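BUG: 3D viewer hangs when loading the predicted structure for this chain

Environment: internal workstation, default settings.
Expected: structure renders.
Actual: progress bar stalls at 90%.

Input used:
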Amino acid sequence: MKIILSITILGFLVTMLPVHAGDNMKAFPPPENGMVRYVLQLPLQDDESAFKVELIVGKKVQVDEKNQYFFGGNIQEETIKGWGFPRYVVKELGPMAGTLMAVDPNAPKVNRFITLGGEPFLIRYNSRLPIVVYVPKDVEVRYRIWSADSASKMMEQG
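Structure tokens produced before the viewer hung:
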């Protein structure tokens, strides 16, 4: 009898997880004036500890094709009060900077996606909660999934 009850409860919980994930959007307020909210719901993975999500924030800009460019600014993680869920906010993109290689002034400009400078912004993979990012209206959010090799390798002493 206890086994049947346990299986029934487990089945109920498993079927309710996707519905609960959709309800989690109630925790995330609408974007403030001048901001946009991006939402990513990740697919379930067998071993989610082997994955990370890189958030890539930037915008398309007309620039030369030789120099490397980046924006100042950062992604801030905030916890939503009363829920404990993380949300990510970029208040503004700082000034654009880049390398100073000499380029023919008559060379045509190209439309490139220029991102925030600095180290990649990696977060834990969690398919149970949406990843919610708030950015200014003219800014895009992209992402990349990183995965670890299942086999570890021995390191040499020395």
